[in-house]
């Protein structure tokens, strides 16, 4: 395995709506995430048009980072983090999204965080929009399917670039932007309207004359334009800014040697890794998009100005999440599976976690090699981790060797990809401090190096306790990835 390059950005990642809490404090407005209940594998999260009494809304409390930020940043400093990926809550800056002026208390909160990060030598990696938007934009405009939302986002992004100039140098415009291609992402990522009581995967409200897929892909196109405009503004405000895309990436394998299975797997990989990647890295839609649009009766509103904006607003690096791999088949063989909101088939050669996600480190190397081979720009793995039920022992220790084993394999795979020639510049594990799951809303689905004393029953005082993996990851960072041993 090759050595990781000098200056490699080791760290971890969180999202405001899963971690921050304080959902209605200091002028913060109501976000789309604030209207989603908790759930679990058997009971999906659902949307409520009004807040229901005695119902758990994970974003309302999260891990209460808003009141524990100093302690949490100190933990990251103790581990030796080089970067910390976090998102800004749009509604903490512009409560309704279309406000004329930003909320100064919200701006001041994040400024404190970024200043402390700089004191610790931690580079903030900031996601501008991570699975939330002002709920007012859903009610008043139908979410991202309305072009007017582009301007509201660009104003928001420009405010951040100006306010945090010199404090933040690494930015991501939209989290897992390609999830808008899925039913899960229509509301979660696109802020498209849901019926009262509907689960996240339910059909969303569409504008007159449209269909479900058209609404999703028009919303996605509008985000592409907004992202490209933001990239141009971010570079103009500070030429040192590095602005990337963020994709929910991975690899699907064919179940059999049947050519049709290989073709289906290839098309799945194209739609997942390259559809959005081509627009944001190359500045234009991929060739295979036209047939997809034609076959699904999708007629997007794309202007000549849009095309020019996309061409001029390409990103500086490609970042992505990777948790597991999938299997595709055109036969009736195999066992159905679902991981990270993606329906595939079960791989008989891999082990699975408690949520049915395949653990496949080699798949990460394959994904890195393929993406770099297509784009030849710097890459970052900005989400990777193992969700698990952690047990607190009688002495207070948390021996999460299963998490260490998962991360060992994936870090080794990244080293192999670097040896393959991939320009990998950073790695941020998901949920470095425990937070609520986006998919199920559970607190008990834990990813972190630091345990947060809070559970699905809303019990616990939010106190923090390092796990065994905390000390292991500290050693990994100190050795720049050379020492992965668990002893």
TrEMBL record:
<dbReference type="GO" id="GO:0005829">
    <property type="term" value="C:cytosol"/>
</dbReference>
<keyword id="KW-0378">Hydrolase</keyword>
<comment type="similarity">
    <text>Belongs to the glycosyl hydrolase 1 family.</text>
</comment>
<dbReference type="InterPro" id="IPR001360">
    <property type="entry name" value="Glyco_hydro_1"/>
</dbReference>
<dbReference type="GO" id="GO:0008422">
    <property type="term" value="F:beta-glucosidase activity"/>
</dbReference>
<dbReference type="Pfam" id="PF00232">
    <property type="entry name" value="Glyco_hydro_1"/>
</dbReference>
<dbReference type="InterPro" id="IPR033132">
    <property type="entry name" value="GH_1_N_CS"/>
</dbReference>
<dbReference type="GO" id="GO:0016052">
    <property type="term" value="P:carbohydrate catabolic process"/>
</dbReference>
<keyword id="KW-0326">Glycosidase</keyword>
<dbReference type="InterPro" id="IPR017853">
    <property type="entry name" value="GH"/>
</dbReference>
<protein>
    <submittedName>
        <fullName>AscB</fullName>
    </submittedName>
</protein>
